[in-house]
Design brief:
The protein is mainly α. It is about 60% helix and about 5% strand. Strand 1 and strand 2 (about 195-199) form a beta hairpin.
Length: about 200
């Protein structure tokens, strides 16, 4: 009888599982607390990037790691500048994303809808920061220090950056959208008369 009652009790999570669950919960709480602090987050990432570049220049190696970091962050930046629903695909009727949410207007007579990024700012920051931390960690392992002629990597990255940004800017001009809110008209709400106040 006692054995049957013991078997019917829910299994208690193991000590290791509890430890990792606690760590995961605390880490997520920390991330959630950083969301409103945009400027300090980006400053800390910039400082880490400077530390990484200083280390690369000091040790004169790990150029492949630096190149991989640059390419990854370029991809993140392009996703940050791109709308969630690509107007080019929508124009062709090939968009596979549900059209429940707001989208960019593609014609002059269409209603204004806010710009929604493919990669939100917080995920962009988190991905960029995590990549820098991984890159710094890689510089402590010699097998990541693959010998390459670094000027070729620099030139290739510059060419790739210019071509990618040129294509993105052409896309922005063609579909008339700006991925930044600076300089756009903002609305504060309604006054007592019911009129919308422009700031």
């Amino acid at each position: 009888m006692d054995d049957a009652s013991e078997d019917s009790r829910p299994a208690q999570p193991g000590l290791i599982k509890k430890f990792f669950l606690t760590i995961s919960t605390r880490y997520q709480t920390f991330l959630d607390s950083t969301v409103p602090h945009l400027l300090p987050r980006w400053i800390s990432t910039l400082v880490m990037m400077i530390v990484f570049l200083a280390r690369i220049l000091y040790v004169q190696g790990w150029y492949i790691v630096t190149y991989a970091l640059g390419i990854y962050q370029l991809n993140l930046f392009i996703a940050f500048l791109t709308p969630k629903i690509d107007p080019a695909l929508e124009e062709l009727g090939e968009s596979d994303i549900e059209e429940d949410g707001p989208e960019l207007p593609t014609k002059a007579d269409q209603e204004f809808r806010p710009f929604i990024r493919r990669l939100p700012e917080f995920k962009f920051w988190y991905g960029a920061t995590r990549a820098v931390v991984i890159a710094i960690t890689c510089t402590f392992f010699e097998f990541f220090n693959i010998p390459v002629f670094w000027p070729i990597l620099v030139m290739y990255f510059i060419v790739l950056f210019v071509i990618t940004m040129k294509r993105q800017i052409k896309h922005m001009i063609k579909y008339r959208y700006l991925p930044f809110t600076h300089g756009k008209q903002k609305y504060r709400g309604k006054d007592d008369s019911g009129d919308v106040l422009k700031s």
